[in-house]
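Re-running the complex after MR caught last week's input typo. The corrected sequence lines follow. Everything else is unchanged.
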Amino acid sequence: MSSPPAEVATVGRGGFLRACRGLPVERTPVWFMRQAGRSLPEYRRLRGTESILESIRRPELAAELTLQPVRRYGVDAAILFSDIVVPLVASGSPIDIVPGRGPVLAEPVRTRAAVQKLRPFVPDEQAPYVAETVRGLTSQLDVPLIGFAGAPFTLASYLVEGGPSRSFEHVKALIHNDPTTWFELAELLADSVLASLRDQVAAGAAAVQLFDSWAGVLSRHDYERYALPASTRVLDGLGDLGVPRIHFGVGTGELLDLMAGAGAEVVGVDWRVPLDRARARVGTGVAVQGNLDPTVVLAGFPAAAAETRRILAEVAGGPGHVFNLGHGVLPETDPGVLAALVELVHAETAGGALAAPAPSAPGPGAL
Amino acid sequence: MSSPPAEVATVGRGGFLRACRGLPVERTPVWFMRQAGRSLPEYRRLRGTESILESIRRPELAAELTLQPVRRYGVDAAILFSDIVVPLVASGSPIDIVPGRGPVLAEPVRTRAAVQKLRPFVPDEQAPYVAETVRGLTSQLDVPLIGFAGAPFTLASYLVEGGPSRSFEHVKALIHNDPTTWFELAELLADSVLASLRDQVAAGAAAVQLFDSWAGVLSRHDYERYALPASTRVLDGLGDLGVPRIHFGVGTGELLDLMAGAGAEVVGVDWRVPLDRARARVGTGVAVQGNLDPTVVLAGFPAAAAETRRILAEVAGGPGHVFNLGHGVLPETDPGVLAALVELVHAETAGGALAAPAPSAPGPGAL
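Corrected-run output:
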């Protein structure tokens, strides 16, 4: 894996980073959240039954898993194969990733004493394999590599709830009943996340995405008061590195302006908010990323193509759009549909202008 | 149960219906979605281990379960003890309500043939016990009774998915891949829902709420095209009855204007959208209902009171607000906190004007 595989698409080179900065592009760049994952047969083959955290610790394997979707789909960006809990696990939190369930802690962090036992994440000591994977990738990739981390609120949710949650009851109780401890936890996590992202950029990541996957469970007031400061601390702390910062969450329609204001060049938008509205909310000078419903992709290419054309029409003529799903690729997704969507987006936006939208035609338009 | 229990609060009489119509009120009316439920010890005692559908079929029991929260909380409206699947089950769909999971179908409805086997709901033939419960209640209640039904999209989701779902993959596939069958299903459900709500109003319900609990999983485009027409058919079909129509969903920030336009006097708003924004979206002449985060109620009275004061401040001075949670009462909720919140809302809004909000003071303000 020392020279770039011939199959890696070169056409997208540069377009993704330009779109993140709101600059005109030859065609709209595309990548998919969770593009490396169980939807790919080559991923399932290579991962086998080993735990995801074990796979992340093996740089050659992690690099290969990162490359797989770039080869197959011809996407315009790669995203590091890793997991948002890596900084937590590496700094000593006993977290298990249970297949089909997610990160689980035997002893949730719900008290000041528990928070004070947490250690900060020191990437080169505790998880040198991440930077090693990134370094190995930069020589093999012909498209930019996106580094990523979970935002402090989302990471805190796992720690406090002890696993995936529907109501987020314990983290909301901590926020409201012991804000001092909450802010201590959020700041510690912000520093760990910042260290992780700086480490990835130092090793060669050309952009970063901060996943605040669960921010949308908070009211706007609670988000602004309790979650935003720590995310701002992370994004601000990356400002000197000069890489585009993407800020993403699900169900965050009411938060988009705040998420942009936290220091993001790009705001990721789920499928609920039409992109023209999202643009109005994030304001001038901030790009948008999204926002095809990943569940509609399961319905097959004609449905997904019609939705893709609608989305492209919503941002017609404007630069500053990175095409993506509104959330991660679902495991049951047909990779053939995703590949056809990449082709469709590239074809429809070729020449930097949109072809007239034709939502009723099922196939990809001509170049 | 032939005369009103002495404990039933009389003070709210009339206020709820006036607020639904946007008229000035002496104080802001309050009720809670799922106020009759497992959070109440008297409910758990009375329900025992009998299935919820069995309890609904017993008018005396269902009436008593409806009355319990009115007695305990002094809320300004009662909501019928029933379930959104009643019209489906009564018209022949084999649905089980599995405790802790929700409605489950052994054979999901995913084909045209399956849709064509569904029968319309005929309330007086298939579920006369509902009207009987309502009639029994009207003589016992000193506050208005709200009738309710699930909206066609939400009911269809259960039928098509075969149970609660995270991705709503099958219903979205049906919508996109076989819109003809989808609209046939949605129209059949609209007619059943309309029949159910007309039956409840004829028996004495003074207002209705249409629960489109899962509408928020759809993009605005899909909601407008595929879900809204059937909900409009229901709400329009109630227009001649002269009762306020409340239209509610979760995660519906982008849909509020459409939900108002479907023919609602009141739009229910979850906790994600600040009520001043919600008001701007639903437009003049439509009231808003909500929107305290039910999970914050679990954090205890001081936290819930601070949030309640913030919400009241967001609608300061304006009529057309019914205080409620942003979703149903969670089973772990302390009824004492809800009772104190009713008192707080009444106290803070007494005289038709808001007291100065004091978010840091934990107790209920003086009258």
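None of the earlier attempt is carried over here. The two ends of chain B are 33 Å apart (CA to CA). Residues 15-352 of chain B form a domain with the TIM Barrel fold (CATH 3.20.20.210).
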